[in-house]
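Write out the 3D structure for:
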Amino acid sequence: MDVICKYSAAALAGAVAFSSTLTSSTIAYAQPSPPPSPPALGGPATPSPAPQAQGAPPTKNAPVVPGLKRAVRAAPENADAGLARIIDRPHTIAELEAGIIALPTAPISAGQSGGDTPFGTIGRGDATMQVGLHVLYRFHRQLAVGAGAIFAPFPTADPEYGGLRDLPRTHSRAYYFFGAEGRWIPLHYKYLEGWVGVSIGGVVIADRFATEAGDRVPTILGTKEVTVRSEGFAAGFQVGGNYYITESWIAGANFRGYQWILPDTPRCTSIGDCATLSGSVTALELGLTIGYRLPL
């Protein structure tokens, strides 16, 4: 009897131990880690957070990489968009110009062919430095109208013009143009643009004759210089290009060809000094410009 009770107690203890082990295993397998919740029907899946470097503080929004900004700015399509944003808005432009004007068939005298420029003589006619100012209104990305004034501040001079040896005289010829102009700007590439246009207006030519000899006297008794002016009509074409340094500053270059229509009969003074240009005269101009843009 005692033996049966001992075996029964041992069997009961073993059954309890086996039942405890089975229960703990079942609970462990019955509670696995929950899978990620699927996205809602038709909605985007929630992206998993990007891993961070060890020790780095957590941030909500990562800063934009500066190198990426430079790469985007360097993209051609962004440059074209930047130029479009500038030129699509109506604006005015003031341009300062410096260059050279040349009259290929009209020297100021037989002894002064080629003119006088910082680069030496040019051709067989007259050539000299010129400066000017242009004010333009650009109301459309391809169209601009305005006005300009150009003159030659340092005209070519002939120190041995006519007269006797005891009466040295000089002769110089200055040019002044004022008129209207229009430009058609069909070419746009990044920060460059090309244009063609026309220009019409009036031109004034001043032939100055000066006598170097003699004593100085009050101006009421006369002057040693006499000027013969010729006025005429000027019309021509122009072509050029611009580069946008910034949104406000523009650099450019242009070439213009004019035909001057002057009186057929030149004017003369009482002592025989006459204008040296008459009829139809061809003038060529090459200039560099720097402009300032003012949006409206």
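The chain is about 15% helix and 45% strand.
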